[in-house]
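User: Hey, my collaborator sent me this sequence without any context and asked if I could get a structure. I don't really work with proteins. Can you help?
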Amino acid sequence: MILWIKKKKYRLVAILFWLIVWQIVSTMIGKEILFASPMKTVHSLLLLIRTKTFWNSIFYSCSMIALGFFCAVLIGSILAIVAYYILFIREIISFLMQVIKSIPVASFVILALLWVNLQWLPVLMSFLMVLPVFYFNVLKGILATDKKLLEMADVFQVPIGRRIRYIYLPALTPYFISACSVGLGFCWKSGVAAEVIGRPTRSIGNQLYKAKLYLLTSELFAWTFVIVILSAIFEKLVMYFIQKLIRHIVPEL
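Assistant: No problem. I've predicted the 3D structure and written it out in C-alpha cell form, which is a compact way to encode the shape of the chain:
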C-alpha cells in the first residue's frame, strides 16, 4: 500500500514537472499560435467537450481502432497457430509479416485509399500495424513451449484441451501480454495517422487536420491530449480484461 502511494505521488510530481516545463516553453515562445499554453489548451478542451462533434469523433475513432486491434489479435493468433504446424506456410506468412512491418503507415494509407471505403481506413491501418506484432509474438510463445512437457503429454495421451490449458497457454501468456502492450500503442498511432491522411468525416484525425489547417493550435493540443488519454484508458481496460481472462483460463498463473 505504501509503495502504491509513493508510486502515485511520484507520478503526480512527474506530471506537474512537465506541465511547468510546458508553461515555461510556451512563455518563452510567447505566441499561442505556435505553442499553446496549458491553460489555453484546457480552455479549448472544455469548449470541445460541450460539442456533439467531440463525442461523435471519440466514439467513431475508438470503435474503428478497437475493431482493427481485435481483428489483428484474432487473425494474427490463428496465422501463428497455422504457421507453427506447417513450416512451409510459416515461411510464406513470416515473409509477408516482415514486409508489412517495413512499409511506412503513410504508404499503406495512400494505397488503401484505392482499395477501401474512407470510413474503414482506421480499421485497416490499425489491423495491419498490429497484425505482425501478434503473429510473431504468438508464434514465439508456441515455439517456446517445453518440448519435454509435450513428450510427456504424448506418452500419457493427454487430451488436446488439457494440453492447451496446462502446457501451451502458460508458455504463450507472457508473449501474448507483451504483444497486447505493444500492439495497443501501435493501433492508436497508426489509426489516428490514417485518419489525419484520409480524413474520415467523423474521426479524431479529421478534427486534428482542421485544427492544423485553421491554425487552431490550442485545439490541436487539446485533441492530442484527448488521444493520449483515450490510448491510455483503452490500454488499461484491454490489459485488465485480458489478464483477468487468462487467470480464469489458466488458474495457476
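In plain terms: Residues 17 and 52 are 33 Å apart (CA to CA). You can pass these C-alpha cells on to your collaborator as they are.
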